Amino acid sequence: MSDFGGIHKEVVRAALSAPYLQREEEHDLALRWSDARDEEALHALVSSHIRLVIAIASRFRHYGLPLADMIQEGHLGLLEAAARFEPEREVRFSTYAAWWIRAAIQDYVLRNRSIVRGGTSSSQKSLFFNLRRLRARLSQAAADDDSIDINGSIAKAIGVSRQDVESMEARLSGPDVSLNATLASEAEKSTTYRQEFLVDENPLPDEVAEEEIDAHRRAGWLRLAMASLSERERLIIEARRLRDEDDSVTLEAVGKRLGISKERVRQIEARALDKLKQTLESNPDGAFAYA
Fold first, then answer.
1. Whole-model pTM above 0.70?
2. Do 10 and 104 belong to one domain?
3. Smallest Cα–Cα separation from 149: which of 159, 130, 162?
4. 154-175 pLDDT tens trace
5. What is the CATH number of the domain that holds 33?
6. Residues 191 and 210 in one domain
7. Domain check: are 147 and 218 in the same one?
């Protein structure tokens, strides 16, 4: 009984030695609790199913959490089952309680196995608790059949993406690592931390602000420079130069719209560009930035 950690041996011994309830006894105790809130009936009903809690908790030993804690969480699930059980449905209490016990223990494992919470959806939770079992089974089959795609088969069986399977496998393959941990041993007295190697590809705040200010200035310069063009020149520049590359209009298309040849459009465009350049060069930087 040393495996049960903080749970007193007498408690475990009492749980394992509690008598099994016959169907009629169980039904009577459940009725007394649900109808009259008889606490003695509740105690007898719960005590006789502690061994079920221990059995279910033992299946989760390989997650590295204290068995005693998982049994305690399972006991809370057992009490929840007792509070919700409906005797008139003619279902054995153990069948109903097993779901609540397992759910309580699984939730405890998800909350405490890692500082990074996993299994936030039902499919992710199923992947977390079934990945190792399915991989072991498929690995045996793959030994005889090289065509078996293990990760793909797991994803299909659980209803998640292949990327989810690979991500969960990576998460389960190693322990949590603190970003504040040094990269060398304590003896070397290193002051280099893991978080120093995390690179943010986004621009710095001052670069973002600078780009916004410059973009505003350039827009102001262009707006005022465009005012120096004729209506036809503005139309050509807007269609040919101020659109995305994929949306730009050909010389021929602009010519058809204006009723002139594409060569004439090219000439007007060249003249308008020269006019824009002269207008911008004739004004000192920022002269009409906020006009």
1. no
2. yes
3. 162
4. 888 888 888 888 777 777 776 6
5. 1.20.120.1810
6. no
7. no
Single out the residue of 160, 94, 76 nearest to residue 121, CA to CA. Answer: 160
Query: Which positions of the chain have pLDDT values less than 50?
Result: 1-2, 286-291
Query: Of 180, 199, 218, which one is at a domain's C-terminal end?
Result: 199
Give the separation between CA 120 and CA 127, rounded to whole angstroms.
Answer: 11
Tokens for 198? 């995390």
**Tokens encoding 97:** 């309680």
Dihedral angle computed from the Cα positions of residues 182, 185, 187 and 190, in that order, rounded to the nearest 10 degrees: -30
Judge whether 240 lies within some domain: yes
290 occurs within a structural domain: no
Letter string b/e over residues 227-236, b meaning 16 or more CB atoms within 10 A of that residue's CB:
eebeeebebb
Alpha-carbon distance of 155 to 165, in angstroms, equals 6
pLDDT for the residue numbered 185: 57
Q: What is the pLDDT of residue 1?
A: 46
Q: 284-289: list long-range contacts, CB under 8 Å, 24+ apart.
A: 286/217, 288/220, 288/221, 288/224, 289/216, 289/217, 289/220, 289/221
- Residue-wise pLDDT for 101-159, tens only, equals 999 999 999 888 776 666 567 777 787 787 778 888 888 777 777 778 888 888 888 88
* The two structure tokens encoding residue 218: 């350039």
Residues whose CB is less than 8 angstroms from the CB of residue 206 and which lie 6 or more positions away in sequence, other chains included:
none
Residue 79 confidence (pLDDT): 94
**Domain stop point among 167, 199, 231:** 199
**Domain limits for position 236:** 205-281
Give me the pLDDT at residue 19, please: 82
Say if residue 73 is in the same domain as residue 86.
yes
> Is 131 inside any structural domain?
yes
